[in-house]
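Record 1 of the preview.
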Amino acid sequence: MQKAAVLSKIGEYPVVSEIEDEEPGDDEVLIEQRETGICYRDILTMDGFFPRVTLPIVPGHEISGIVVKTGKNVRKFKEGDRVASLIYVPCGTCEYCRSGRENLCRNKKTFGETLNGAYRKFIRVPEISLVKVPSGVQEEAAVISACVTGMIIQALETAGNLREGQTVLVTGAGGGVGAHAVQVAKALGAHVIAETSSEWKKEMLYRLGVSEIVPSENFSRRVKEISGGDGVDIVLETVGSPTFNDSFRSLKFGGRVVVIGNVDVNPVTLPLGNLILKGNVIAGSISSTRKDMRKALRLSKEGKISPVVGKVFSLDEVGEAYREMKERKIFGRAFIRF
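->
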């Protein structure tokens, strides 16, 4: 038996309880985790944003650790390897999986949603979801290489078509995604403007290297001022509908909004005339591929991006972690340490 946090009812915090130990299947490995990340998506799952979730479920999808046991068909990994996992299990056979776009696999199963997730020390993961973690990479950097840093690389490079020297606006820049998006954008050669609703986070954002910080209210006006009236090349939208209209108005001609998060189910209105006349693009981007993860891990090893550890909790403190995240008391990523 092992301890795990279990979500049993929508609207209630996960509760720590004992669950059965697992053995890896033929195509799986058993991973011993030192820690896992808490994503705001986990909170949205608790709040009922994702109807596909199967209850009861162990939340969490940020998986990294040491391989302690392998199934008989596993060939690429052995006991003792450091590994990190995608947040999902792709089918491996569809057109998207075959073309290296496994993040779009329609048959994938997601940890913490349809598969028991990472809020436990030992977890079994199919070989197809794993990448090796290079030596010298911080533990927390490996943990967030799929959901956070790899996801941002997918959003900026694939969906955003980012080019060196362009300007990126990051909304929700003080959160667990935004604080790392600032670093990834800079590592990819962009100038970065940050939007945040938390005054106390500004100094830390400047330390991460942002060029300018804009306040949340009507931030598109300030963005236009900063850019000489032009706007930005890319808005990385981590918040969703609450900031979307300002994000869209912040674009230059030919600019793109890349949406990677949404904390509010309310719809947005879109001025189609502006979209057409300015040649703007609105793109959604989901998760990461193993290729994105490998690049994220390489950038981490090179010291170009570093994990922003906001606060570390024990497994028994998961409820408190959720509360502090909802109250915006944490800058960067929250982690559970086992």
